[in-house]
Amino acid sequence: MRIDIKSYLEDNGLTIYVISKKSGYGYTTLHKSFNKKQTSATSMNLRDIEAIAKAQDTEMWKVLRELELHYLK
Which domains are present in the chain? Predict the structure, then answer.
């Protein structure tokens, strides 16, 4: 399962910098995660989902649901 995270970020007006600032996770860590090519060995992890949720002041399950419903490739 591959997630089009870049489209999700764009559609929600988010940047890696904003997510980093609001979530408390390092920019470099998130940048590497969001810009890597996803394979079965390198999927998004819970830290990435948590960071997105914190940046939007929402729950992780809502982010996961949105990704599952609209951003799977």
Answer: 5-70 (1.10.260)
